[in-house]
């Protein structure tokens, strides 16, 4: 298996062809992927490695291959799922002590759909506790570290770019780069080649943000296009299953297999989903792309700005028409989100009382004492703060002032986008994050609220409006870190969105990383 | 002719033994006080599955055997609205002349309780299923009212909501056990305006509501199973003064308890006010053993339920306007309206032509009886409704009462009863024979009444000549009685009749006998 190292970071299409042709067996790829999970252990991408299940899935894929009855392009392909999706018989922890012992008896629809087409589950990935964060640093299981500029990278990976050798200036143990979040585990799992795609979740940017920092495609589909059933909720009206892959075609493939109506999720579109492909030759001359001026945030790094300008120029050269547009309420998005997030958290988290499942304190005095102790032991600091604040916002006397007002602002933000679409703009091009991946010690110098308000600035409005958005990696920064941009489109315009994203992908040729030829994998 | 003294037995059923046990509080003048009662009624909707899950609703299933993942609030599960529940709610609303809202919303009502797994109840408050209805009913208390009087109460709203589970407290062991079979069972909450003045009216309202709901098939109304639960708000004020401070009587679970709990509470409050005291806003429960209302919860700080919209359910849209197309195949309110059966008011209006008011009130006070009555009339168009109704109210009901039989006894012997009614209507038998034949049912006869009459020669003797001969015979053999009668002791007349009765082996037509005897003695 000398090619296995290359195969692990290849595209799904390529691997799928090889599986189909019998050149490689799913179980061999799976075995190698599991090995990768062990070499990347220091990055802490996974909470659970589901190797037994992976083996089983892979073996059934092998036998389907023998019977010529493969279930499609995802058959035999290793994937990972963020640990806030329920997976039957596998722990689903949400990176919280509260659910550290929780083993669901059902599968989330997204995972069920992937299983139905033969995908192989490698593991459950790390996240901020209950997805409350943008760094994957607030996990009961410890933080996830970015692959880029890590020791793991140096030891096991090579990059095809004119890789500027990154010089570590600070040898402090906390000077590693964060993976972004909250789907940081999923991002690192994909970036390292331990799987071909991972499911994240995206409430305020939790898929796009780590995709941006890890140099991946991160797709947040239209709200309601992909079922939330089995995704443990954060903010129900904004949560969307997200897709992390190394290229656009892989993201399309995953989307085609997870999207569509679900009778278990009443907030899903009921219309049949029509799968699509994106051709390799793309003409973008009919696209009108808006550059929203409000996204030139004061903290936007010059490098990202440069990226933005460059890609705008490429698009123009490709024939697209670009114009500056305005989304005047962008600034309010974070505050508005803060209120709505806290309210939903206060409500959604009322179920964690230790009665039916999850952590339960050894307290027999009274039911309310049991609740109190269970909840104070089971939740981390950020979760507790949000529950407390949310309950405050929902008090009868505060409801109008906070919740109702926030809902009104949400409507204004959503209307901003509608106005733009109505003015013949097809897509919007913006930064995803204001910088490359911050260092852990810089990041934690801010509190969670401040972290989120910087991190989510560009990603949050798409969740408010329920529109699709995708992170496209563009290039490496001077420091050797991925820099990315975001495309946003009108509801259900995934095809158009990803068409332009693929054009950009082809144009910028973001560096590919590969596993070094390692005996480890043999 | 038939036993009219028993006519109100039906209505009396729920007054049994109570009034004498009620403690008297008041010695002064009651007239100056005005009592105001408003009801809130929770009716379980008769459906096979729960409001938001597929779990069955069967009352008799073993503990915790009807619990879906959603019912125990397993993270990631979502509510899916049961269409049948909405239809039942709409039918009920239409039958009570409510305005059905084209759009209604579900909300979360938060409170921590061990039998509420999610920590909130999904209910409707701000925008309920229906608003502004009315229920008309007859109030009739034997010995108090000569005739039933008509009363009505306005309905503020009807909302759909989830039932909670049940906590079983075992004081001895100091443990509480939870049964979630009831969690998520569909409820209609009917909120009435405070239009009533006493327990009698409240009980009559509930009885009428049960009649309607059972007629519609939307609720079993089995109060003993908790299928219908009544909360009553009771307050006392001076006439023409604003409403006084109210107490809430919770979960009253029988018709007699409604009546007596409210009347007790009225007296209790008046007694407090008369002593110059103050009524405290508190929640009380009816203790059927001590025949008192007892304190359930002290006056607490107003509970803030932190309502918020249920984010997992889109607004409930109904099709209400026939002038537009029902494009989205919504629940069709106008056609449900057409499906409404004949409602009690109309039923009574029609029956008034053939029944006296008191018989009418009695036969339409209970749906099962009414339906059997209708069926018997339908099976034999010649049958006189008034006669059939009276036979039910007096003869059959007293038999059931005496031998502690339930209604199914009537159903299984319907053919026998029908024939029996025909025999007495056609004056083929007399009333004592009727009773004899009715009691014969207890021996599970394998013959029909007509055959029994023929075999035993139990035909009525109504031939006037024959009766006159018998009467003459009696007079002849009882000269002393004749002497006493002629001397003015009219009471002995009964003895003549009795002797005739015995002599004819209880077969004489007693009405005719009485006439003949009077003539012969004059």
TrEMBL record, chain A:
Keywords: ATP-binding, Ligase, Mitochondrion, Nucleotide-binding, Protein biosynthesis
Compartment list: Mitochondrion
GO molecular function annotations of the record: ATP binding; glutaminyl-tRNA synthase (glutamine-hydrolyzing) activity
Substrates-to-products reaction catalysed: L-glutamyl-tRNA(Gln) + L-glutamine + ATP + H2O = L-glutaminyl-tRNA(Gln) + L-glutamate + ADP + phosphate + H(+)
Biological process annotations from GO: glutaminyl-tRNAGln biosynthesis via transamidation; mitochondrial translation
Enzyme Commission code(s) on record: 6.3.5.7
Pfam families named in the record: Amidase (PF01425)
Stored InterPro entries: Amidase, Amidase_dom, AS_sf, GatA
Similarity annotation: Belongs to the amidase family. GatA subfamily.
Protein name: Glutamyl-tRNA(Gln) amidotransferase subunit A, mitochondrial
Organism of this sequence: Melipona bicolor
The gene coding this protein: GatA
TrEMBL record, chain B:
GO MF term list: ATP binding; glutaminyl-tRNA synthase (glutamine-hydrolyzing) activity
SMART domains reported for this sequence: GatB_Yqey (SM00845)
Catalyzed reaction equations: L-glutamyl-tRNA(Gln) + L-glutamine + ATP + H2O = L-glutaminyl-tRNA(Gln) + L-glutamate + ADP + phosphate + H(+)
Taxonomic superkingdom: Eukaryota
Residue ranges annotated for the Asn/Gln amidotransferase domain, each copy included: 371-521
Pfam families listed in its UniProt record: GatB_N, GatB_Yqey
EC number of the protein: 6.3.5.-
Cellular component terms (Gene Ontology): glutamyl-tRNA(Gln) amidotransferase complex; mitochondrion
Subcellular location, record wording: Mitochondrion
SUPFAM superfamilies: GatB/YqeY motif, Glutamine synthetase/guanido kinase
Family: Belongs to the GatB/GatE family. GatB subfamily.
Subunit composition and interactions: Subunit of the heterotrimeric GatCAB amidotransferase (AdT) complex, composed of A, B and C subunits.
Family matches, as HAMAP family: GatB (MF_00121)
Function in brief: Allows the formation of correctly charged Gln-tRNA(Gln) through the transamidation of misacylated Glu-tRNA(Gln) in the mitochondria. The reaction takes place in the presence of glutamine and ATP through an activated gamma-phospho-Glu-tRNA(Gln).
Full protein name: Glutamyl-tRNA(Gln) amidotransferase subunit B, mitochondrial
Organism: Melipona bicolor
Highest classification ranks of the organism: Eukaryota, Metazoa, Ecdysozoa, Arthropoda, Hexapoda
